[in-house]
Amino acid sequence: MDLHSGLPYWIIKNELYNYFNSLKNNYQTEVVIIGSGITGSLAAHELCEAGIKCAVIDKRTIGTGSTAASTAQLQYEIDVPLHKMAKMVGEENAAKAYQASLKSIKDIEKVLKKTKVDADFKNVSSVWLASYKKDLKLLEREFEIRRKHNLPVEFLNEKQLLKKHNIIGFGALKNNEAAQMDCYAAATGLLKFHLSKNELDLFSHTEIKKWKEIKNGYELETTDGKIIKCKYVVIAAGFEAGEFLPKKVMNLLSTYALVSHPIDEKLIWPERSLIWETKEPYFYMRTTSDNRMMIGGEDEDFQNPVKRDDLLREKIKKLEKQFKKIYPEIPFQVDMAWCGTFSSTEDGLPYIGTWPGKDRMFFALGYGGNGITFSMIAAQIIRNKLTGVEDERAEIFGFDR
């Protein structure tokens, strides 16, 4: 399936990682990671750091799946608000999920610094706007439970929102513990780093069509009939991982994103905050290092790629209109637009770990708007499992929750 169409900004901004190395012979290693996007690259990084021999395999050009279409906002907030999630999975587990998401932002920054990968990582604030006056009650409930669990949060009333962010609105929750990055540069940069150190094997344009569990591991077969033997498999293929799962665990959604022409830096909104709304589906916006504005949303249930793509022109107009409601004085001219498909779960949490009874196939499924932070958590959990380190997060994000 085409994961996205249109013209994703990251593929234009960066030089395409024109890496071609399809598997030509039978192969054996300790861990095979299926998927070369940000999830697969972070998993590879953690395993390489632990001295575990691994290989990344992708049926596409490296990093050109969902990662290329990501708007790459890093927030500890999860798609399901904490006070609602507490009712779904219990308050303690919900709070731990939020705290893990918060920590992962710093962990990603540390990984990029350690490997010297330039992924335009930038710490910014996050502003969650009340879309309607009635949503202030939602923000108040969320504010209280976040404070209770020592999560960074500030309540902005109408006057404070206007003064600090030049937004005419009802109110917002704000925190200064968010970030943004270039997801494609991060994924390809991490893979290049470990290739250069001879710690990783990387195979592109190699598709797995069959797999079976064997004694002490897995045997995978490619569409070309090549056999791969390994002790463990990590599925880091986004919603395409569904074919490896015994049953469906996610919902598919179509999403849309735009990036503007560059503008004068003086015209960009205060603090370059990540801005998003309480309404569902929510509208969101961020900036880029070259002073463009990236906006997105207008999500709807996925039907098929053709239907998704046909709506792109209509969605562009709607997203432009929503931006003008927030910052009517800032000029926004669309330079690039794209649409894609992503997955979500009912409780807003990812699925990380093994399926019950299948202890050698790990899933790193960072569904929802927090895919990148979830990917960092997944990489750490899998590393810890393979090195015998206890990790309480495994239960919170596991299939048995």
UniProtKB/TrEMBL annotation:
A Pfam family assignment: DAO
Name of the protein in its database record: Glycine/D-amino acid oxidase
GO cellular component: cytoplasm
Taxonomic superkingdom: Bacteria
Domain FAD dependent oxidoreductase intervals: 31-382
InterPro entries the UniProt entry points to: FAD-dep_OxRdtase, FAD/NAD-bd_sf
Gene3D superfamilies membership: D-Amino Acid Oxidase, subunit A, domain 2, FAD/NAD(P)-binding domain
Signal peptide: none
